Amino acid sequence: MYLENSLDFARLADQQDPLRAYRDQFIFPQHNGQDCLYLCGNSLGLQPRGIRPAILRELDHWAEHGVEGHFRGDMPWMHYHRFLTDAAARLVGALPQEVVVMNTLTTNLHLMMVSFYRPTAQRYKIVMEAGAFPSDQYAMESQVRWHGYDPATAIIEVAPREGEDTLRTEDIVQIIEREGDSIALVMFGGVNYYTGQLYELEKIAAAGHRAGAYVGFDLAHAAGNVPLRLHDWGADFAVWCSYKYLNSGPGGPSGCFVHERHANNPDLPRFAGWWGHDENERFQMKKGFKPMPGASGWQLSNAQIFSFAAHKASLDLFDQAGMEALRSKSEHLTTFLEMVLDEADKGRNMYRIITPRDPAARGCQISLLTDHRGKALFQYLADHGVVADWREPNVIRFAPVPLYNGFEDVWRLGELVRTCEL
């Protein structure tokens, strides 16, 4: 795609964008009576306009039916997770029976590790990325301690080479091969929250399985951001949230994937709850847990209907737009953003981009590693209506989300950076 750092080019690109109409499906915060320049969808996505009527519908259903709302209407609450399953499965490249929406992200991560982190005297180590999102770090640490191991020796963190900002796939594979049969679990993010690097998940899964380990992915920054093929890649499990790129509201529900080779194994250890019990017998209130088939057998409790309704409204938009089209626009947006940020910093050296330069190796994010002027730059942008993200100690993250951001947004950001005086 030809790119030119000009307002005319940005406006023409937006006019020719086949996804441009989706921007009108979202509500933008205001700054001085104008839409904010919102580039923070990697932290919390904007509110789709369809969410309010979706939640009001469930409020009306509750008012009309009370407890019978679990069984009445075209979307009875007892089966509500089913109304999300097909769209969620398409989003992550899974079979419908391999996916369920339930709980929240870190809760699901712990539930999956009950089943898939089963350390032995020989196999007890976890391989993960260095600098993973803190929830992943804390979950791995606490799980290792729960089983009586020392995180200092049981957790192997793969770090970038000296002088580099991102990981090389060959280094990840080499460490997995080196540790071999001491590994119980390979646990990686899909897109690194700090740098925006998109990992080669298929190769990581293959290496983990060659070593005889289970493989799991945290897709918090990947679901709704990049195309995924979980079933084909063969991951044993994956989890993701819905409040970032999936625009389902703060604390929105999590998705969970369990590969079909495990999903129908009732003997696989798990923590059980009544909503994961065979629904044909659920209300008989008998002892003896009998899991639902597929990933649904990992459910614990009733669906959070209002947040599920919000999530469904957002998933409907993704089904309409399609991840391949979103990914294509995303790569163009980040390439344009990379260009305007490079040009805005010429002669000043306020920052350097730590996100991979190859569009195929990143999500819809560009991260700047700033110098001592970074906090002042971030505040300057905020004062001018830019909503971005500051990460300690000195990184600014910009996420041009293809569902609601456009090329003029990116150009405007570049102009603000270029003309700021620090």
Q: How does this structure look, described?
A:
The chain is an alpha/beta fold and 422 residues long. It folds into 2 domains: 7-35 and 322-419, Aspartate Aminotransferase, domain 1; 55-320, Aspartate Aminotransferase, domain 2 (3-Layer(aba) Sandwich). 37% of the residues lie in helices and 14% in strands. Helix 12 runs parallel beside helix 14 (407-419).
Describe the structure concisely.
By secondary structure, the chain is an alpha/beta fold. It is built from 14 helices and 17 strands.
Q: What number is the mean pLDDT?
A: 97
Low-confidence stretches: none
**Largest sheet data:** 7 strands, mixed
Helical percentage: 25-40%
How far the N terminus sits from the C terminus, by CA atoms, comes to: 33 Å
SSE inventory with pairings:
Elements: H1 7-15, E1 26-27, E2 30-31, E3 34-35, E4 37-38, E5 47-48, H2 51-65, H3 82-92, E6 99-102, H4 105-116, E7 125-129, H5 134-146, H6 151-154, E8 155-158, H7 169-179, E9 183-189, H8 201-210, E10 214-218, H9 230-233, E11 237-240, E12 254-258, H10 260-263, H11 305-321, H12 323-344, E13 351-353, E14 366-370, H13 374-383, E15 386-387, E16 389-391, E17 395-398, H14 407-419
Parallel strand pairs: 4-15, 7-8, 7-9, 9-10, 10-11
Antiparallel strand pairs: 1-5, 2-3, 6-12, 11-12, 13-14, 14-17, 16-17
Which keywords apply here?
422 residues, Aspartate Aminotransferase, domain 1, Aspartate Aminotransferase, domain 2, 2 domains, seven-stranded mixed β-sheet, four-stranded antiparallel β-sheet, 14 helices, globular
